[in-house]
Design goal:
3 strands; 3-stranded antiparallel sheet; alpha+beta; single chain
């Protein structure tokens, strides 16, 4: 079986209240190494056989047409996962 990962992030100009909340909570936990946090979405798509160009193209199409909102989100990665 093959797996494809699709990562989607809010566009830089879009406010990210969840990322801001996490960024505000980290210092309260003693984690001060980070100046900002952005939260996105990750999808893992599984196919029956190995990942080929056909499956990658289908994953890209799914990301563009269903998994993301192109007005406020960018698709940052569509690639096969190595097991």
């Amino acid at each position: 079986m093959g797996r494809i990962v699709v990562d989607i992030m809010p566009k830089p100009e879009i406010l990210d209240p969840q990322g801001k909340a996490v960024g505000g909570a980290l210092p309260r936990l003693g984690i001060t190494e980070f100046s900002a946090v952005r939260q996105g979405k990750r999808f893992e798509l599984t196919c029956e056989g190995p990942v080929t160009d056909r499956e990658l193209a289908a994953a890209r199409k799914a990301a563009e047409e269903m998994l993301s909102n192109p007005i406020i989100e960018d698709i940052v990665r569509v690639e096969a996962l190595e097991d």
